[in-house]
Amino acid sequence: MIDDKILYKRFLDGDISAFEKLVIKHKDNLIYFISRYTGGDIYAAEDIAQDVFAYVYTYKEKYKFSYSFKTFIYTLGRNKSIDYVRKQSRIDLNPLDRDDERLFSEESLEDKIIKDEEKRLLFNSLKKLNPEYERVIYLVDFEELSYKEIGKVLGKTLGQTKILIHRARNKLKLIMEKGAENDER
């Protein structure tokens, strides 16, 4: 098998097939490596690996021959994975869709099914609330903002915010109780 550095030199000289050989040689292991950062999300890992190779192709002069090509792409993969995870945590506006518990705990299948069912009931119940109640529940219970911060976000006084939260929680409780009763039938 041809050494990576030789293939890379050929690639620098314009041999695109040499680059393709490098990709084929390293892509599977790179995807597996990246998937450890993405929580096992193989599709995200594949996308990130593709970004790594696109970066290498675009910025071919960035690779220094003082260390291995594999080290170079794995470093890029790690950095791009960390960026991806940071970006995902910023855009994850709906915590009800997150499956972090599944990734980081060793709960039984039965416990997971129960939690998933509870999440589904909560999510469906939230959708039945009027938009103002849904927003305030989200801000207080998922974003964990203080009542004062919520008041500022919604343009309400502290007293109005407390009343709104109280009413929203009561309405959510009623909707969830009805939903649980309907599921039992």
Overview of this structure, please?
This is RNA polymerase sigma factor. One of its GO terms (biological process) is DNA-templated transcription initiation. Keywords: DNA-binding, Sigma factor, Transcription, Transcription regulation. Residues 23-90 form the RNA polymerase sigma-70 region domain. With 185 residues, the protein is an all-alpha fold. It is 76% helix and 0% strand. It has 9 helices and no strands. Residues 93-106 have low confidence and may be disordered. The protein folds into 2 domains: 4-91, Rna Polymerase Sigma Factor, Chain: A (Orthogonal Bundle), CATH 1.10.1740.10; 95-184, Orthogonal Bundle (Arc Repressor Mutant, subunit A), CATH 1.10.10. Helix 2 packs antiparallel against helix 3.
